[in-house]
Amino acid sequence: MAAVAVIGALGTTGVLKASNLDTGVIIVTVGATLSYFAVILSSPHVSTVERERVLAFIPMFIASAAFWSLYQQQFTVLTVYSDKQLNRDLFGWTMPVSWVQSINPVFIIILSGVFAALWTKLGDRQPSSPVKFSLGTIVMGVAFLLFIPMASTEPNSAPLLGLIGVIFVFTIAELLISPISLSLSTKLAPKIFETQMVALLFLSIALGTAMAGVLAQYYTVEDQVPYFGILGAIAIVVGAVLWVFTKPILTLMSGVR
């Protein structure tokens, strides 16, 4: 009730408005994240092993936020891109822009079973969770780089099949991170903080989504190449750094994969 009252007061006085809502969400999310981690790590009811597992979750939190900051641009940059740059003409019929948002769900329905079967078949030979997070972040960065060959200032010049291919890569990245993240957060959670660890996972999604909103304002048709190139490269670097530190992270995870 106190939080609602504060938000209401900020909105009424004009401090919080639509134009700075994304920045406000980022500030609140970062504050809540730091508070949650501080409470969990400083609790006398958390054992040494549990505390190390929480520490192991931090780099995954960062990778998750980086991933969602790109992935959630499906609803901002990708929508604008589909409206302005995508050739949606199919045999004389123009596909509605909104239909582009249906491509990713179709791929999820098709590929989720494939990934489930793959992990089941691999069993203990499947990649560890840090590696999956690393791969997911790297693949998401690659997906952004795939926009570069289609870059053009000419309207309706990007091929539909090309965008479908990019969204296919989006989906692979998502399935490397999203389905396993909830399970991982509960496995790494101290016994008395299971709910809070799940909350931290959702805070990483909230942070990434808000960052996606902030980043989207820098997208322009004229700056497609630097926009997709820089963000894609940053995501690849974040994923690569996580991959490099996989062994020490697994050590902190104390048997959790």
Description of the molecule:
With 257 residues, the chain is mainly alpha-helical. It has one domain (2-253): Growth Hormone, Chain: A (Up-down Bundle). It has 10 helices and 2 strands; from the N terminus they run ααααββαααααα. It is globular and about 65 Å long.
List the helices and strands and how they pair.
Layout: H1 2-13, H2 21-42, H3 48-71, H4 77-84, E1 89-90, E2 93-94, H5 103-122, H6 129-145, H7 160-188, H8 194-216, H9 224-244, H10 246-253
Antiparallel strand pairs: 1-2
Write a concise synopsis of the structure shown:
The chain is mostly helical and 257 residues long. Helix content is 72%, strand content 2%.
The main β sheet shows up as:
2 strands, antiparallel
Distance between the termini: 39 Å
Structural domain tally? 1
Mean pLDDT: 89
Find the CATH superfamily: MFS general substrate transporter like domains
Q: What are the secondary-structure elements, in order, as H or E? A: HHHHEEHHHHHH
CATH topology: Growth Hormone, Chain: A
- Give the neighbour order of strands across the main sheet: 1-2
Which architecture would the CATH scheme give at its second level?
Up-down Bundle
The geometry reads as globular
Q: Please provide the count of β strands.
A: 2
Unreliable residue runs: none
Strand content: under 5%
Percentage of residues in helical conformation? over 70%
Question: What is the CATH level 1 assignment?
Answer: Mainly Alpha
